[in-house]
Structures are given as structure tokens and as C-alpha cells.
Design a protein that fits this description.
This protein has an eight-stranded mixed β-sheet with strand order 6-5-4-3-2-1-22-23. The chain has a seven-stranded mixed β-sheet with strand order 7-8-9-10-11-20-21, with helices on one face. Strands 14-13-15-12-16-19 form a six-stranded parallel β-sheet, with helices on both faces. The radius of gyration is 24 Å and the shape is globular. A hairpin with a 2-residue loop joins strand 17 and strand 18. With about 525 residues, the chain is of the alpha/beta class. The chain folds into two domains: about 1-215 and about 405-515, Metallo-beta-lactamase, Chain A (4-Layer Sandwich), CATH 3.60.15; about 220-400, 3-Layer(aba) Sandwich (Rossmann fold). The chain is built from 15 helices and 23 strands. Helix 3 (about 85-115) runs antiparallel to helix 7 (about 280-290).
């Protein structure tokens, strides 16, 4: 019974953990790395064809975005997720694949002029299409059997439509151990979706720590404060630009704007125009506007029963074509533009920033987490000038960072989640947080009486002995890409070495003749490669 950590270890993106038990390898999440170090996406630190199945906690790309790459490299197993997550993945993975292809086209266009070698997309639309038939929808609260000895159940994590924490029971050698993966733990009182549900028992817990060092502003103040920004900006003749994740955050913003308009909070332009400029957001909004049985909170159910669509209102426009998107920057009338990506790393939002950042009457409103190294993080941190499409842009627009609507639990919420266990787990693994936050939250848990540990990339842990068997590789953000590629291949070699040690342990008590033959084969292998 082993647990390996392959992503979001002392960083926030690229979630990927692996359970090795009962002769199976099970991934929990397979996320895309975003921001600094995105070259880590190029190579898996394991053999994709040897993975038996994947359990996806939710549809966000930093938890699901490498699934098509996994399939491209030989994975053929089942991908388990809630029904809503499967619906969202059916549009998000195709969108991500399209972005991968377009990024490769753009890089090759530039590289050809510079005489560089041609690059291939991480994966293609065809790879994403091959991934979708592998999706297996699950229902909250129902147990699913992976194989003899391994079962799991999904519990509402309150982070995104369909998001889940995962309870997994593993029985080996007559002993059962339970491990819980928190996924992303939701903030309280978010619109549309329910609050996170709490779990009572576990031997081991893998939990996120995104906001483990801070507490959010009260959510009750969010709508009036956001309305004030809208009012002042629109009155000055400027645009409000909102970089937003196409799935989840965009729909929450629309929910709040409907409330703003109903309450008449924007006095300068009560029926202000709102443009959602993202084909992916448009498709996701259709899913959010559909049947929400088993996912929606009581307030949303009430709104629906009263005959209102929770994310629909007058003067709402959905832009799908490039021409519609471009027209937003040629018009002079004030407007609200919601566009992806939420961290400003790709997509149409970068064009809107190019046309609005230099205008002092405009506002850019951030409503979600901004990872280190992203353009969004630089703007939030107060950068004075940015480069977009080869052009230097002076930052003169007002920058706002609304943390109250975070989809993640804050420190108080995280502590509430872990304290719901009736007895402290044998070990709590702290992941999905920036380096200092992970270590700080681990220290806080230790002080509260938990045995907490913040693993490094490719760390490995034995659940039978309750011991760390590999400390992993510290994440070095500034490695050159070529060096990073070598590092990824090296950690894959380390993974093979750990497997060899596990095989050796399983052969304890075997016939002396067989053990001697095995040892001889290992000696020959070492002689070949010991150089």
C-alpha cells in the first residue's frame, strides 16, 4: 500500500497523486501545470500505460487537463468522476486540446523564422476525443469498486459543480485502510452550489492548502463592493474587465450580476451590458442552466422554483465568434467583459487587457486565485508594465482583487474540514499550496496535534508502515527547460527504482534459488548502467 505524489506538491497547479495497492495503480487527478514551470507537462514521471484507472475530483484543468496526454501515451482504463464533472470535462478537454494545438501553431510560426525545431502540441483534439468514452459517471454517496480490495465513494466538496472529495478503502493482507483525498475544498456560501460536506473517519488524508495562511473577506459584502466598482467605472466611461475561469467562476459572477440588477445597485447604468466572451464559458453556462438536481444549494433551488433562471438577466450577451470578441474593443460604450482564462495566461482575455489596461478609466477585477508566474499574479502584485502580443502596455487601469468569492476554503474553512474527523488520521499530507503556505499550514496542523507532512514532487509513502520511503525531488522553478526535461526523465527512473524495491519486498520468504537468480539479474543490470 503506497502513495506517490506527482503534482501540486508545494505548488498549486498540476494535481496528481497515485495509489499503488492490490496490484493496481490508481491516479487521483491528472492536472495540467499552469504558470512558471509549465514545461513539467512534457513528460509524466511514470509509465502512463501502467496506470489502471483515474479518479477525477473535479473538472478544473489543473486537476484534469493532462487526461488526453495520459491517453495519448497509452492509458486505456476507466476515468471516474461525478456526472456533472463528466459533462464539464466533455467540453473542457476539447477546449484545452484546441488551445494546445493553437499554441503549437503559434510557436512553430515564430520558431520557423528563428530556425528552431518544430514543436508538437502536448495533445490534440483527437486525443481528447479518445478520452471522453473512458469517462464513467458516479453519484455522490454511492460506493464504486475499482477491483477486488479497492472501493471509493465521492462526497460533495462544494468547490465547483460536481466537485468531490474521495473516500477510498483499500484491503490488503486482510487489513483495510481508508485514505481520503480532499480535492479542492469549497468556500462557504458560494452561489449555486452547496457547501462542502464533511467526512468523519480516515487513516490517511491528502488535503489541499491553497489559502492555508489567510481568511477571506465576509461574503456578504461582496455584491455591494463589486457593484460599487461597476458603478464608478461605468460612470467614468470605462470598461470593467473580469478575467474569469470559464467554468464555475463565470457562472457565479453572472449569478451576482443578476442580483445586482434586481436590487438596482449600479445607479449610473442600471441595465449595463454584460458580455461573456468565451465559447467554453458559453457551453458551460448551458450546463449550469440545466438540471441541477443533487448539486444546487437551497437558494438556487428557490430561485429556480420562483421562475427565474439563476444566471440570466437583461442585456446579457454571449460572444462566441472571433468577430464578436473583436467588436467589444472597437465600441466606445462602457460595458462589463467577462473572459477567460482566469489567470490571463491564454485566450481572449489577453486581447481585452491589451485594449483596456492602458486606460485609466477602466478597471480589471480579479475574482479567483492567481498562481505564481502568471500574468494575473503579476497584475495583482502591482506590475507597472506588461508585454502583450509583442507590445509594451502601461498598466493604468485600476486593479481590484476580490478574494471573498474564492472557490477555495480559507484557513478557517480548511481547519473546519480537517477537524470534522472524529479522530486524527495517522498522517495528513498537505498539498496544493505554494511552498511557504504548504509548510506553514503543515506546521499549524502539527501544533494542533496532527501528524502532518508536506511532500515534495515524486515523494513516496508506505501506508502499512506509516513511513516516508522516498523524500522526492524539491521543485526547482528556475531550471532551464532542457534541464527540466532531463529531471522529468530522471524522476521516472526513480519511480522504476521504487517499484523494484517493492518487488524485492514482495519476494521475501521465496526459495533461495529464485532469490539468488533475481539478485544476479539485478547485479547484471547495475553493471550495465553503473557508469
Amino acid at each position: 500500500m503506497q502513495l506517490a505524489f506527482y503534482g501540486a506538491d508545494k505548488e498549486v497547479t498540476g494535481s496528481c497523486h497515485c495509489v499503488v495497492a492490490c496490484g493496481k495503480k490508481i491516479l487521483v487527478d491528472c492536472g495540467l501545470h499552469q504558470g512558471d514551470g509549465d514545461e513539467n507537462n512534457e513528460t509524466f514521471p511514470f509509465d502512463a500505460s501502467k496506470i489502471d484507472c483515474v479518479i477525477v475530483t473535479h473538472a478544473h484543468i489543473d486537476h484534469s487537463g493532462r487526461l488526453p496526454q495520459l491517453v495519448k501515451e497509452g492509458f486505456k482504463g476507466k476515468i471516474y468522476a461525478t456526472g456533472a464533472t463528466c459533462d464539464l470535462l466533455s467540453i473542457m478537454l476539447l477546449d484545452s486540446a484546441h488551445i494546445q494545438e493553437m499554441d503549437a501553431v503559434y510557436a512553430n510560426r515564430k520558431g520557423e523564422r528563428a530556425g528552431r525545431a518544430k514543436v508538437e502540441p502536448l495533445y490534440t483534439v483527437e486525443d481528447a476525443q479518445k478520452t471522453l468514452p473512458l469517462l464513467v459517471p458516479c453519484v455522490y454517496g454511492e460506493k464504486n469498486s475499482v477491483c477486488g480490495g479497492i472501493e471509493f465513494r465521492m462526497v460533495d466538496a462544494g468547490h465547483l459543480l460536481g466537485s468531490a472529495s474521495v473516500e477510498m478503502w483499500i484491503t490488503e493482507k486482510g487489513k483495510t485502510q481508508k485514505i481520503v483525498f480532499s480535492g479542492d475544498i469549497g468556500n462557504l456560501n458560494q452561489p449555486i452550489i452547496r457547501d462542502p460536506q464533511y467526512i468523519k473517519e480516515a487513516d490517511y488524508v491528502v488535503m489541499e492548502s491553497t489559502y492555508g495562511n489567510r481568511e477571506h473577506d465576509p461574503i456578504a459584502n461582496y455584491v455591494p463592493q463589486l457593484a460599487k466598482v461597476f458603478d464608478e467605472t461605468l460612470a467614468a466611461g470605462g470598461n470593467v474587465v473580469i478575467p474569469s475561469f470559464a467554468v464555475g467562476r463565470t457562472q457565479e459572477i453572472l449569478y451576482f450580476i443578476r442580483e445586482m440588477k434586481e436590487r438596482g445597485l449600479v445607479k449610473s447604468m442600471p441595465d449595463f451590458p454584460v458580455y461573456v466572451d468565451s465559447p467554453l464559458a458559453a457551453k458551460a453556462t448551458q450546463i449550469y442552466a440545466g438540471r441541477l438536481d443533487g448539486y444546487a444549494d437551497e437558494e438556487t433551488v428557490r430561485v429556480i422554483k420562483n421562475g427565474f433562471r439563476p444566471i440570466d438577466f437583461s442585456n446579457l450577451h454571449i460572444c462566441e465568434s472571433v468577430e464578436e470578441s473583436m467588436a467589444l474593443n472597437s465600441g466606445v460604450s462602457p460595458k462589463v467583459i467577462i473572459s477567460s482564462s482566469g489567470m490571463c495566461e491564454a485566450g481572449r482575455i489577453r486581447h481585452h487587457l491589451k485594449h483596456n489596461l492602458w486606460r485609466g478609466e477602466c478597471a480589471v477585477v480579479f475574482v479567483g486565485y492567481q498562481a505564481e508566474g502568471t500574468l494575473g499574479r503579476m497584475l495583482v502584485d502591482g506590475v507597472k508594465e506588461v508585454k502583450l502580443f509583442g507590445e509594451e502596455i502601461k498598466v493604468q487601469a485600476k486593479i481590484y482583487n476580490f478574494k471573498a468569492l474564492s472557490g477555495h476554503a480559507d484557513r478557517k474553512g480548511l481547519l473546519k474540514w480537517i477537524s470534522s474527523f472524529t479522530q486524527p488520521p495517522r498522517r495528513v499530507f498537505v498539498v496544493h499550496g505554494e511552498h511557504d503556505i504548504c509548510e506553514g499550514f503543515t506546521y499549524d496542523l502539527d501544533k494542533l496535534g496532527y501528524s502532518a507532512y508536506a511532500p515534495e514532487f515524486c515523494a513516496a509513502f508506505d501506508m502499512e508502515s506509516n513511513k516516508v520511503i522516498d523524500e522526492g525531488v524539491p521543485y526547482r522553478r528556475r531550471l532551464k527547460k532542457s534541464a527540466q526535461r532531463r529531471s522529468s526523465a530522471f524522476v521516472r527512473l526513480q519511480e522504476a527504482g521504487r517499484r523494484l524495491l517493492l518487488v524485492i519486498q514482495h519476494n521475501e520468504g521465496g526459495a533461495n534459488k529464485d532469490l539468488a537468480k533475481f539478485a544476479g539479474q539485478i547485479d547484471l543490470l547495475c553493471e550495465k548502467w553503473d557508469r
